[in-house]
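Aim 2, interim progress: modelling of the zinc ion-bound target.
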Amino acid sequence: MVSVQTRVADVVRIPVRPGGERPYDVVLGEGVLGDLGEIVAGRTRAAVIHSVALRATAEAVVADLRANAEVEAYAIEVPDGERAKQLLVAGHCWDALGRIGLTRDDVVIGLGGGTVTDLAGFVAASWLRGVDVVQVPTTVLAMVDAAVGGKTGIDTDAGKNLVGAFHQPLTVLCDLATLTSLPAVEIRSGLAEVVKTGFIADGVILDLLDDDPTGAAHLPELIERSIRVKADVVSGDPREAGRREVLNYGHTLGHAIEKVEGFGWRHGAAISVGMVFAAELSRLAVGLDGATADRHRDLLSRVGLPVAYRGDRWPALLDAMRVDKKSRGRRLRFIGLAAQGETVIVDGPDVGLLISAYEAVAPERGGWAR
Ligand SMILES: NC(=O)c1ccc[n+]([C@@H]2O[C@H](COP(=O)([O-])OP(=O)(O)OC[C@H]3O[C@@H](n4cnc5c(N)ncnc54)[C@H](O)[C@@H]3O)[C@@H](O)[C@H]2O)c1
Ligand SMILES: O=C(O)C(=O)C[C@@H](O)[C@H](O)[C@H](O)COP(=O)(O)O
Ligand SMILES: [Zn+2]
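Predicted structure of the complex, ligand included:
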């Protein structure tokens, strides 16, 4: 396990102000899960959607809400990991909400990693055409990214997150104490989104990770900085009409790897490879300097994330990338980097260029031609 230092002694509240939609805060600190009762007090019912790994925490939350907030709380358990983001599991949750009799005055609570907050958000967005959701992320990845900003959804056979809705939460509670049980491999996966945030916006993040690539020495600060960037981007463009697309840096290839791997790769691992590819594409297409491009591979390797993938999977990856939400007609679109903190759209690059960029992550190519 990676030890979690708690340098953020005080609770930090980071505002998300999505224009036209209800404003909310991301609350970050040790023990902030204790605020949940106050947040949902006055509701009749609450449904706590959680993964197997969070069963004990969910049971404690349910008991606390019943005893201290006079809320009829119920736990709904879903599978661990990406297997939660399936239509079948959403259906299981809708059936459970039906049995509970959850009304529009009641609330869904998403307790777990990004797979659970994505699922719970989608269930809340669709149940009765929309009920409130409070997100309680328990992984680094969910705190810095998935639980913030209202993107919710599930996967289909065709690809990642292809069904979903924008549904902003009532509040996001990031309790640093929950991270003490998080395996190191999951911390590393979360650091991939942290690195993404460093390259697209806040360069201090990259320096902090250079200082300690395990993330342990600066974890609360890394989480806070990443949330601030996400909150800022989402506040300006909650429904991805434009600028929000920058949060997809590394995701076009990353999501394709997840699909080709049958959703068996961690999200952070897949977008780590995706960022090395995106950096190389940026070098070739928009003149990103070689040192910044190389910094991707160096930093991500030192964090302990993968930076290479199989050459023979290129045709399948290209097919998978065509259903990416950024695609327009036959044109693939990528988020590129002109310099650290300066994103650009790489619109409709030709396949030859994509293959050249892919060579940066495929040590032995094979099975595909230029
Ligand atoms: N909606 C968004 O904006 C957004 C942003 C980024 C990622 N995502 C999505 O998030 C998902 C990845 O999230 P993730 O990395 O959190 O994965 P995850 O939800 O699969 O969690 C990782 C593993 O850790 C376990 N776990 C969770 N909290 C724990 C804790 N405190 N202690 C011990 N074990 C714990 C989980 O049960 C799971 O097995 C992907 O589906 C990705 O597409 C969504
Ligand atoms: O919040 C966003 O916007 C993002 O793109 C954040 C990503 O890290 C995240 O993985 C998101 O789920 C990707 O969304 P998608 O629209 O590409 O499915
Ligand atoms: Zn992501």
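The domain at 249-358 is CATH 1.20.1090.10 (Dehydroquinate synthase-like, alpha domain). The pocket of LNCXM5UN (ligand 2) is lined by residues 145, 149, 151, 160-161, 193, 240, 244, 247-248, 251, 325 (CB under 6 Å).
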